[in-house]
Design brief:
By secondary structure, the chain is mainly α. Helix content is 47%, strand content 3%. The radius of gyration is 20 Å and the shape is globular.
């Protein structure tokens, strides 16, 4: 790949113009590994804000296009096998010790989720929903059906904490996909992939965060598959395009489902649909990845 993904819509060049690559040297004895950090240009905040707006607008545009492919109202009869989850998924694992059962195929089961009380139950259910977002086996119609249920089962599963401060809810799907998507596109923009890849702290930290084992980690499946053995340093160029397509797909599908979850309330309140505040989400992700970048302030 010679250009980053969606370069005609997302101004990656503007982002990387605010980053500098620094290698360890005698002048920087504390630097053990090369790093990408902000150049601290005077217009840095406005550049990051503009980048975030353009990126967010692209996600929303693709989400709207994708949503138009499906009926306005998703009925059970519209789903495969007339069940919430198709028969082909029976017995498939969604956590280390749970598999999809006949119960998971029923509408009654999903309507009862808001009554679930324990973080353990919520974590396992969140993992099940995460499997529906896998680019290799998408189940968009099921996600839209669940998002339309008045009991709002998907709301409860967005942010789940269990045993430590990490969260394992379904929001991790877009959060990890966003970090991976930015990480790789920045490296492509700088020509740092394939034979020209250089190890750096930003890359190691991000990959560790989105692939290391933790509780309820179904959202990590695409990242682990891509960054696994033989591709730790973006050496497999042929897989880059497919993986980036998958990351971007997860971003706009998550936006589409979040808007669908807001549909009933938006209609009741007579307002436009609300998805994710992508501008802030993107800028916050950038700030966590590259020292010296911080979330800028903007209207809206």
């Amino acid at each position: 790949m010679s250009t980053p993904h969606q370069a005609h819509n997302i101004p990656w060049h503007l982002l990387v113009s605010n980053l500098t690559f620094t290698r360890p040297s005698t002048q920087r004895p504390a630097l053990k590994l090369a790093e990408l950090a902000a150049t601290r240009k005077p217009n840095q905040d406005s550049d990051v804000a503009h980048f975030s707006r353009r990126f967010a607008a692209t996600i929303r545009e693709f989400a709207a296009t994708e949503r138009a492919k499906y009926p306005v109202v998703i009925a059970l009869k519209d789903l495969e096998d007339d069940k919430v989850l198709p028969d082909a998924l029976l017995g498939e694992p969604f956590t280390h010790n749970e598999t999809i059962t006949l119960e998971h195929q029923t509408v009654e089961y999903w309507k009862s989720i808001p009554a679930q009380k324990t973080a353990l139950d919520e974590g396992e259910l969140a993992d099940l929903v995460k499997t529906l977002y896998l680019p290799s086996a998408p189940h968009i119609d099921t996600l839209l059906f669940l998002a339309q249920l008045p009991e709002e089962p998907l709301h409860q599963l967005r942010h789940v904490t269990y045993s430590n401060f990490f969260h394992y809810g379904t929001d991790r799907v877009y959060q990890d996909a966003l970090m991976a998507y930015i990480l790789i596109n920045v490296h492509i923009s700088l020509g740092m992939y394939g034979e020209k890849f250089e190890p750096n702290s930003n890359y190691e930290h991000a990959v560790r965060f989105i692939t290391e084992s933790q509780d309820f980690n179904a959202h990590m499946a695409p990242q682990r598959a891509f960054f696994g053995m033989g591709n730790e340093q973006l050496q497999d160029i042929s897989r880059l395009k497919t993986y980036l397509n998958g990351c971007f797909w997860q971003l706009y599908v998550c936006e589409m489902v979040l808007q669908e979850m807001d549909m009933r309330r938006a209609n009741e309140e007579g307002r436009e649909l609300r998805g994710l505040g992508w501008e802030r989400e993107i800028a916050t992700c950038l700030a966590s990845m590259f020292a010296g970048l911080h979330r800028p302030e903007w209207e809206g």
